[in-house]
Write a structure and sequence with these properties.
The chain is an alpha+beta fold. The chain contains 23 helices and 16 strands. The strands form 4 sheets. The chain has a 5-stranded mixed sheet with strand order 2-1-3-5-4. Strands 9-10-16-12-13 form a 5-stranded antiparallel sheet, with no helix packed on it. A hairpin with a 5-residue loop joins β9 and β10. The chain is globular, with a radius of gyration of 32 Å.
Length: 613
């Protein structure tokens, strides 16, 4: 959305520069100065925000599934979560296409669901349109064009323009959800509305007009807001009479690009239409109240500017607040994430033994439920796409079937010490420890602890590690398998223990995690021999480890996790998160902010001297 805003800002600068040349107000020297100052302002703005821009960009472009494969999936993937034509009607006529708010479920558009409103405000739209038509200001033509551009982008490939945007504008191939740009259309229309209202408030009342030109200008803006209001009212009359059959016809004939349930959407139309009628006609009443007060201002000097502006503000606030209010709901956390005996059991276990993960099978709890109580979880629907790409690949979240569906030993590596399931099982290696209603909590007796020792390992390429973990010849081997051989992706600098097959140990040392605050914690462990401390924590370049003041190499192990080499004996290993890119970005932001303040002070000083003060 920041990138979209830069398009509008850059376009506005170019527009004003071009207007200066057309009106012969800009010399080459002045233009060069303006360009230089504009570039400086951009650099300062980017510099101040650098800590919010570059680290997230670096992460999602290198380490996350969230955007890294968007371009590979093509224009249809980039076009997903667009604003459909039926959604576009709802930007002017509130609730036309419905919503999927809790207890409402009236959205009938062609997206899978809609839990947000794109309504502009019909009074804002009417005044903006009248202002663009009547005032004939080039700046309003620019903002009108910006609104059209944002709208054609938002509705994606339903019009051919999006293909041009997608293939010609840098960066667009990395984005999804084109409707997110629509806020620029709303912003542009608010600017146009402000010009229209300003023109009316500054105009002399018609009864005191001195010139024919003034009368014509006032008549234009005054008449146009009425004509636009009539057109919008006429549109709602048509929708009132034919909206339901038109909507059904549209659903049956328009391309069903997301393969939504048309029968279900048709039923949603029936539920939504009475809500739409009530909401849209109330909007029309509020619109005419606003038009009326502006017309009265044009006719009488006795109506104060402050009163007119205040009434308009109240009308717009009422219109938008009634649409926004259902989205602003305070809900007690305990209602969404109720605490039960299973949560209490897991909390006690974590307090006694340190962190572990719970594997949540379908029809039990969501991973956010346990996360709300500070408990780590694994599920088939991980997070929202921002997690590390190699964690996604390890769990197999983006493939069918998933790795954690096919290979139970992946649960062990994931430190999934508990499984929550809706049914009882009788399987070796699982012990029922608690139940609550239809929820059953089993302990996975084979699970790795969060931290443990390995004294045998194998160096493999990153691309091969996952395949080897899925290879039955490795994980099911009775002697050398995933339980006693750790896969690492670089030489740890020490030699692994060598055992004859008959003496391969099956035991290991367990590390105790202390001072755990997620980004900074300690592991205390007694290493039986020179070996590796394995940590079932996702590897990331920013993780650091040290013991006794000496930094340790942090290796990637078992494809997605962490290992550090340790000598035999007692160790207290400090793990902490230290991202140079974040630290440097902070430094750039603070330095740029300081430079901006210096330039501001210098500008004020020189400006004061220039005025001779």
């Amino acid at each position: 959305m920041s990138y979209f805003a830069s398009w509008l800002l850059g376009g506005l600068f170019v527009f004003r520069l071009a207007r200066g040349f057309v009106k012969k107000e800009m010399t080459v020297a002045k233009s060069a100065s303006s360009v230089g100052l504009f570039v400086l302002a951009i650099l300062l703005g980017v510099g101040i925000c650098f800590v919010q821009l570059y680290p997230p960009y670096d992460y999602v472009s290198k380490y996350s599934h969230r955007t890294m494969h968007t371009e590979e999936k093509g224009i249809e993937y980039g076009n997903s979560w667009r604003m459909n034509m039926e959604d576009l009607v709802s930007t002017v006529y509130p609730d036309f296409v419905g919503l999927d708010l809790q207890g409402r479920q009236t959205y009938w558009g062609r997206n899978v669901f809609r839990i947000n409103s794109m309504y502009i405000g019909i009074l804002i739209f009417a005044l903006a349109l009248a202002g663009i038509i009547a005032l004939k200001k080039p700046i309003l033509y620019f903002f009108g064009g910006a609104a059209v551009f944002a709208t054609t982008y938002a509705i994606g490939t339903q019009l051919p323009f999006f293909y041009l945007y997608y293939y010609l504008i840098p960066g667009v191939k990395s984005f999804r959800a084109p409707e997110m740009i629509f806020y620029l259309a709303v912003f542009s229309l608010c600017i146009a509305m402000a010009f229209a209202v300003d023109a009316i408030l500054k105009a002399e009342p018609r009864e005191t007009s001195k010139t024919k030109q003034t009368k014509k200008r006032k008549r234009d803006i005054g008449d146009w807001i009425v004509w636009v209001g009539i057109a919008l009212t006429g549109g709602l009359i048509i929708l009132s009479a034919f909206g339901k059959p038109l909507s059904n016809w549209w659903l049956q004939t328009a391309p069903n690009f997301q393969n939504v349930n048309i029968a279900g959407k048709t039923a949603a139309i029936e539920r939504n239409f009475p809500i739409f009628m009530k909401s849209a006609w109330l909007a029309i009443v509020l619109m005419w109240a606003g038009i009326g007060i502006l017309r009265m201002k044009l006719r009488s000097a006795k109506i104060s500017t402050v009163m007119v502006a205040g009434i308009l503000a109240v009308l717009i606030l009422v219109d938008l607040w009634r649409i926004d209010k259902p989205f602003i709901v305070t809900v007690e956390k305990d209602r969404l994430f109720p605490r039960n005996s299973l949560v209490d059991y897991l909390k006690r276990e974590q307090a006694d033994r340190g962190p572990f993960r719970t594997f949540l099978l379908p029809n039990t709890m969501t991973y956010t439920h346990l996360a709300g109580f500070g408990l780590d979880a694994v599920s088939f629907s991980e997070l929202h796409g921002n997690q590390l790409v190699w964690y996604d690949q390890f769990t197999g979240r983006t493939q069918r079937p998933m790795n954690i569906q096919q290979y139970p030993h992946f649960w062990d590596i994931l430190n999934a010490e508990y499984l929550m399931m809706p049914q009882r099982i009788n399987q070796p290696g699982f012990e029922l420890v608690a139940n609550s209603g239809n929820l059953n909590l089993y302990r996975n007796l084979r699970a790795f602890p969060r931290a443990r020792s390995f004294d045998m390992w194998q160096v493999v390429e990153h691309e091969n590690a996952l395949n080897l973990l899925r290879n039955e010849a490795f994980f099911a081997d009775s002697l050398r398998n995933y339980r006693n051989v750790l896969l690492v992706e670089e030489d740890p600098g020490i030699s692994p223990a060598v055992y004859p097959d008959s003496l391969i140990p099956q035991s290991f040392a367990v590390g105790q995690i202390t001072d755990n605050v997620f980004h900074d914690f300690r592991v205390q462990i007694e290493m039986p021999s020179d070996g590796l401390l394995f940590l079932s924590q996702n590897w990331y370049p920013a993780w650091r480890a040290e013991t006794g003041g000496a930094e340790l190499p942090v290796l990637r192990a078992n494809y997605s996790f962490i290992a550090v080499p340790l000598k035999a004996g007692s160790h207290d290993v400090h793990f902490y998160y230290d991202a140079p890119i974040l630290n440097k970005s902070f430094a750039i932001s603070f330095a740029t902010l300081g430079l901006s303040l210096v330039l501001l002070v210098l500008g004020l000083v020189f400006n004061k001297k220039g005025r001779g003060e």
